[in-house]
Amino acid sequence: xxxxxxxxxxxxxxxxxxxxxxxxxxxxxxxxxxxxxxxxxxxxxxxxxxxxxxxxxxxxxxxxxxxxxxxxxxxxxxxxxxxxxxxxxxxxxxxxxxxxxxxxxxxxxxxxxxxxxxxxxxxxxxxxxxxxxxxxxxxxxxxxxxxxxxxxxxxxxxxxxxxxxxxxxxxxxxxxxxxxxxxxxxxxxx
Length: 190
Fold this sequence. Notes:
single chain; alpha+beta; Nuclear Transport Factor 2, Chain: A; five-stranded mixed β-sheet; 29% strand; disordered N terminus
């Protein structure tokens, strides 16, 4: 059975090296898909992709009224599995760049808490309240419908229920973290 699986690859390698394709059809010998031409993003596309990133970050912000938009803004070609991330308080968009047909969006984000699996208590989580500022990147791509979607970057928001989460340091809580996020956001808006 192993010999039968290897033979088409060897035949292809020998035939392709001589500039010919073997006579039988295998996955390795089928004609390559037509090359897809792409146009690098222009300044209008860069602005539109950056606006989509801003919309994603605003919807990801703790307490955002636009959180229901996340599914549309992250409808990436490779899938859209929910992912846990830190609690976002504020963000500042930076200038994007283009890499092929992808816009690389950047932002300085401030987060106020992070949640991890509790390694000592199976099925429970530990959240740590702290303020952290980072410069992050996301790939912003065109979806099949032509909309810009945010992919391949950090997601925000806790996925574990608060009832299964122990907060650190002592006295910290989800409510305190949300209040801190609101406070930082209101300072940014001034």
